[in-house]
Amino acid sequence: MKTTLLKFAPRLVGLGLALCLAGCVSAPPEVPFDHTTATNIHRIAVLVPAMPEHPTVRLASDIGQSFGLIGALIDAGIETNHNDKLWAMMQEKGYVPTDAFSKDLVTALTEHGYEATLVPAGRENDGTLKTYPPGAYDAYLDVTGIGIAYGYMAAGVGTSNPYRPFVYIRCRLIRAGDGAVLMQDAILYNPVNGLAAKALTVSPDPAYSFPGFDDLEADHGKTVQGVDAALHQSAEMIGSLLK
């Protein structure tokens, strides 16, 4: 039994994060953007987001919660399998989520009149910045934090609980001169079961709704497009925070 637990330890960690996202996500304190105090912000460095390379596919209410450790292990194995399959679909279509989301962030800020540039950033393992990259920038847009996730989520099992794209991200705008936080918020695309009540929520596009995981697998192109649409709308929401 000890060997089995060690074997599944990474999956249990992932399951713990999934359960946290499903029931106890806490958003950072909101800091609304205020033009009267955030003056002379024109050039923004969009730091490459600290987001997982791989997507996740999860149930907001896991079957295994009713069956103790064995059920949890089974659920973790199913989730890992589904995650791998969604990632394979993205690779098949040549879709790189971080690249697509980064481009969308730059576009969103540009549309609101900012001079936005994508800039790589050195980060710690938890996604926090080591240092802000040098450059002639007025502010840095940082999208990062523990709990960032994207992919597909269902509220439960059965056709009445379809899989829809979801995104949970945290963002903040940091003034280059003194490091002051000019804006801070959380975005939740597809709020399931009242998740992250303090986050700004975005309703999912009804075009990307799948009764079960088999339906996700049946149309790789549409499935990947659903994730892209969710990230795109989330980026647009961040842009709107800096109006």
Task: Tell me what the structure shows.
The protein is an alpha/beta fold. The protein is about 35% helix and about 20% strand. It contains 6 helices and 8 strands; from the N terminus they run H-H-E-E-H-H-E-E-E-E-E-E-H-H. The protein has helices spanning about 1-5, 10-25, 70-90, 95-110, 215-220, 220-240, and strands at about 45, 55-60, 115-120, 140-145, 150-155, 165-175, 180-190, 200. Strands 1, 2, 3, 4, 5, 6, 7 and 8 form an 8-stranded mixed beta sheet that branches. A hairpin with a 5-residue loop joins strand 6 (about 165-175) and strand 7. Helix 4 (about 95-110) runs parallel beside helix 6 (about 220-240). It is elongated, with a radius of gyration of 19 Å.
